[in-house]
Amino acid sequence: MRILDSHAHLDDALFDIDRDELFESMAQSGIETAIIPGVSPEHWTKQLDVAKQYACPYGLGIHPWFCEDNPERALVQLTDKLNSAIEDPYLVAIGECGLDKIRKDNWDGQIIALEAQLTMAQQLNLPVILHVVKAHNDMLSILKRYSLPRGGVIHGFYGSSEIASEYIKLGFKLGIGGLILKTNARKLKTCVAKLPLDSFLIETDSPAMTPQNAADPRNTPLILQSIITEIANLQKKSSVLISEHAFRNSVQLFDLKLILI
Ligand SMILES: [Zn+2]
After folding, report:
1. Counting Cβ atoms within 10 Å, is residue 218 exposed (0-12), middle (13-18) or buried (19+)?
2. Which residues does the record give as a divalent metal cation 2 binding sites (predicted)?
């Protein structure tokens, strides 16, 4: 059974003390790699260093939490960074970018940065990694105006079956993560039970989204197995089948054939 984490911030400073050991434990648990998303110009240098050191695929982007009211300067930096990385086979996506209504103070900047990054994804023929919190209707109406050749993923998806099928119709996958392990995530569980096998990826969003009662305050890719088990239970299918499809969907979306042996 092949497993990869489609979204993990393994460049986060919380992993500085034991990153080698974490990658070692991931290898022992059969987790082949993790896609490291980009969040802001200040973070890209370290992110790319970590990605290179551990041979992880990565995205480059501006996260809505790190988006200024006027994101022009950061967008110019992103264009430069993308130009210098475009030949790198480990650059697999634009993102993460998106909309977050919990951090509404920079909403206009979030919209400008998102639309610019969708245009970059079109021009560079890359998929997008989208962060969408309490903003599915806004996101869906923006996505309907862009035709993205490679689609993308709604990472850390939380929403209803209706919202899920809208994204799927637009050519997007859904990133299913630790939220599925919460006992009160009823709406998400109902949705995931019915998702088509070619429509989802698995992820942890480490070090965020730590499961309840975990010994380590940090989340790590090592919880992927419990996410697979939960999806398998909800779908009434085997864990092997679920993990195979999730792996294949990630490989297809991010075109990882050449970098995974
Ligand atoms: Zn993230």
Report:
1. middle
2. 131, 155
